Amino acid sequence: MASRFISALAGFAKFLPAASKPSQKPSLREKFAWTGLALLAFLVMASTPLYGIPSQISNQFNIQNLIFASRQGTLMQLGIGPIVTAGMIMQILVGSKILDVDLSDTQGRIDFTEAQKSFAVIFTFIEAAAYVGAGIFGSLTLPQEVLVFLQLVFATLLVILLDEMLQKGWGIGSGISLFILAGVAFQVVNAAFSFQPYNTGVKPVYAYGAIIAAIQAALNGHFLSSIIRYPAVAGSIPPPDLVGLVATIAFVLILAYMQGMKVEIPVVYQKAQGYKSKIPLQFLYVSNVPVLLAGILFSDYIFFTQIIWSRFDPNNNVWYLNFLGTYTRTASGIQPSGGIAWYLQNPGGLGATIEQPIRSLVFVALLIVLSVMFSYMWVEIAGLGPRDQAEQLSASGLQIAGFRSSVGIIEAVLRKPIYALTFLSALAAGLIAGVADLLGAYGTGIGLLLAVSITYQIYQILVQEQIEELYPGIARLLE
Questions:
Q1: pLDDT of residue 1
Q2: Averaged pLDDT, 116-137
Q3: Residue (of 308, 299, 348, 350) closest to 327 by Cα position
Q4: Can you tell me where the transmembrane regions are (predicted)?
Q5: pLDDT tens string 412-466
Q6: For residue 18, with 0-12 CB atoms within 10 Å meaning exposed, 13-18 middle and 19 or more buried, which class applies?
Q7: Residue-wise pLDDT tens digits, 308-341
Q8: Which CATH architecture describes the domain 1-184?
């Protein structure tokens, strides 16, 4: 039954537009060109406002904008949301064996990829309809709703094609990683250097960007006011400040250092006359997936309760819906103002953190707890558990130095370091992401986690590409 479901989705993908594989492997220069073209298309769409809506492009960013590389009020309103959501659901269904797919088989991998693409297209239509139907863009006429719906669908389908193009070998990495990195970089630059005025109702009016505002404040003799800044409307996200700048630099350095931390397991290769080596287990063993899943959960909760609020409780006077979340419309968009949703959105800066200590502590605690919970789930689903790793080592002819080659023994030896790294990496990632948010780090804590991880992955890809171009013989061995 499950395999028929995958086959049906894979069959549907044959009727969708698709990017073809290159007939021969592009050079590194050509890959840079195609990657730059995809990035340019994304940035243009992220700067193009949706035609037919009364609201303006927001200068503020939240978890949803970050994870899904989206920007409110533009063609990138959905961003990579449908791709990420479809991918996560498919990974969980396959990893938990609900869907029976053999990913070690070439055809199985092709069917899975095609099914995932079809699922992403289906989610595109669902999310576009949800945004329009929920009244996120204000009061629209029926023709306006149809027009906005079509814009969202076509723009997101183009993003799916761009991601497919890069993954099929035309570019470097994947579209998802590239667009997330671009979104985080845009947020960081915008937070530091935006000249757009940020009106707090008190003169003089300084720029939104922290560095520009600090220069303006210094020229007016009020430099200290730029160190910690407060929101124009109580409860909304405050503008970037210098504390956030220092936090951003500090956490990027910490995360870059953590990328190189690892635990080495000594192994012996019996087929090579007992050749000894070491297998590294990264300290960030589960990478940023658990904290990303926690962020997606926060984001989806806010998204759906926002829809419920806009339809059934716009005046915040239905008590049982107020428990789920209350919202207010501000110049920077719809913001949580109470209920559970209030605690799932970070305060956004040190000033707001000091003013709302309970909210801040609850936010960080929830982020850490959910990250740890998701980490154990992801280890089993993604095949990173001790049993899966032991089977892979045994199949490769490797065994732990000083122990017999039995799968059960290898599993017992690996259980302690793997589960310890699972807990510690999720705890560290959740804590760093949460504290970075409380200090107002640019791009948010989860964004910095993603950006550093993606940058490291791209660096590794570039090193491999350079080696393959310089030494073609190695490229043939890697195929």
A1: 45
A2: 88
A3: 308
A4: 32-53, 74-99, 119-140, 147-166, 172-193, 205-230, 242-260, 281-304, 358-379
A5: 888 889 999 999 999 999 999 999 999 999 988 999 999 999 999 888 888 887 7
A6: middle
A7: 888 888 888 888 889 999 988 776 667 888 899 9
A8: Orthogonal Bundle (1.10)
Q: In terms of residues, how long is the chain?
A: 479
Is residue 120 within 8 Å of residue 17, measured between CB atoms?
Answer: no
Neighbours of 117 (CB within 10 A): 23
pTM of the model: 0.83
What would the DSSP string read from start to end of 163-221? HHHIIIIISSS-HHHHHHHHHHHHHHHHHHH--SEE--SSSSPEESSHHHHHHHHHHTT
CA nearest 295: which of 441, 440, 431, 430? 430
- Where do you find CATH 1.10.3370.10 in the chain? 1-184, 251-479
Q: What is the dihedral of CA 92, 96, 99, 102, to 10 degrees?
A: 100
Say if residues 348 and 238 touch (Cβ distance below 8 Å): yes
Residue 335, C-beta contacts closer than 8 angstroms, at least 6 positions apart: 235, 236, 237, 327, 328, 345
The one-character DSSP state at 314 is T
Topology of domain 251-479 in CATH is Preprotein translocase SecY subunit (1.10.3370)
Cis ω before 204 (30° cut-off from 0): yes
**Is pLDDT of 56 > 60?**
no
